[in-house]
Write a structure and sequence with these properties.
The structure is a single chain. By secondary structure, this protein is α/β, with parallel strands linked by helices. The chain folds into two domains: about 190 residues, 2-Layer Sandwich (Heat Shock Protein 90), CATH 3.30.565.10; about 130 residues, Rossmann fold (3-Layer(aba) Sandwich). Helices cover about 40% and strands about 20% of the residues. Helix 3 packs antiparallel against helix 4.
């Protein structure tokens, strides 16, 4: 109807909002299924570094505030750490933000319009060790006492009938529990009963002393801008993917060359040397494995040639819809330095590029 011009501007705006909302819902379902599949195989990727949990908390709340406003939910934030020194964790910032987003969105989802969701961040001590504590409390539909022991199980829902008012696969809390446990933490659910709301409490150990923090691996910043003069060669046969990657990388300061085949990529390399190469694995005629092997041969043959600027290996990232460990090992063995499974998040991709550039300069 939009394409045919049958809607006025007001209805067009509402239609686009509907498309976006449902696309985001579908994306979340797919991502949850992929995450659970990785959890079952034991290869859910977590990238650990020293992080300031207060920053992660603040970013997540900013994302959820418009969601709460849209449903007239009063979202109250109590950050007991706001005026304290930074609280550091050894963890995956994206996955920990996923924990907060999931818990808060669940609370909003199961709280009637006009209700209240309270999110509190605090520091507690357990057996002499500091833990950051996150509590998400709502005034929603609550949880039955007989269901509480199963609330974190995969595909378990308190109301599993086809007529239930809240849709979903029952995967979010299972994913949250796994992520929290991978960080050495715990999560608990409590509810006085049906219609009386629920409270979820997450506790994750902190990096307490300065010495403990210094002994951890160096923190790699999630920079919003790539190093100056970064040129990225993107190879993907899907026009939409090329356009998305181009837009994303350009917004972070990179010069982008996007091509759709191995032949075009090799022709580009004869003319210039990119800072980083990003390639899909499933390409027509010749796949990503063939590409990286030819690139490495090309580099070797031009190693001492004054006619080419190619002197060292170009850092290369493989993108693939296959998330298995065997696929990752095959890509690394073929010559890629990094392997990212689709769908990749912008922050994950940018971090990978920054890290590869830093490694190549050492």
């Amino acid at each position: 109807m939009i394409r045919a011009g049958l809607l006025d501007q007001s209805r067009t705006d509402r239609a686009l909002e509907t498309v976006e909302r449902n696309a985001n819902s579908q994306l979340q379902l797919v991502e949850d299924l992929l995450d659970v599949s990785r959890i079952v195989r034991g290869d859910l990727g977590l990238s650990f570094s020293q992080i300031n949990f207060t920053d992660v908390f603040t970013a997540a709340i900013q994302v959820m505030q418009p969601v709460a406003d849209a449903k007239a939910i009063q979202l109250t934030t109590i950050n007991m750490l706001a005026n304290q020194a930074p609280i550091y964790l050894w963890g995956d910032a994206d996955r920990l933000q996923q924990v907060i987003l999931n818990l808060v969105s669940n609370a909003i989802k199961f709280t009637p319009t006009g209700g209240q969701v309270t999110v509190q961040l605090d520091l507690v001590e357990i057996e002499g060790h500091p833990f950051v504590q996150l509590q998400v409390q709502d005034t929603g539909i609550g949880i039955r006492a007989d269901f509480l022991p199963y609330v974190f199980e995969r595909f378990r829902q308190a109301d599993s009938t086809s007529a239930r008012s809240h849709k979903g696969l029952g995967l979010g809390l299972a994913i949250v529990q796994y992520i929290v446990r991978q960080h050495g933490g715990t999560i608990q659910a409590a509810s006085p009963g049906v219609g009386q709301g629920a409270t979820f409490t997450v506790k994750i150990p902190c990096l307490g002393s300065d010495r403990e923090r210094q002994n951890m691996a160096p923190f790699i910043p999630d920079s919003s801008v790539l190093p100056a003069n970064t040129t990225v060669l993107v190879i993907d046969d899907e026009a939409n993917v090329r356009e998305w990657l181009t837009t994303l990388l350009q917004s972070h300061g990179a010069v982008v060359i996007a091509v759709e085949s191995v032949a075009e990529a090799l022709k580009t390399l004869e003319e210039q040397t990119p800072t980083v190469l990003i390639s899909d694995i499933a390409l027509p005629y010749e796949d990503g494995y063939v590409l990286i092997q030819q690139v490495r041969r090309f580099e070797a043959s031009h190693q001492e040639s004054q006619e080419s600027s190619v002197g060292v290996q170009i850092p290369a990232i493989a993108l693939s819809a296959y998330a298995g460990e065997a696929s990752r090992q095959k890509a690394l063995a073929a010559g890629f330095q990094a392997y990212l499974a689709k769908p990749v998040t912008p922050s994950e991709l940018i971090r990978a590029i920054v890290q590869l550039i830093e490694n190549s300069e050492q």
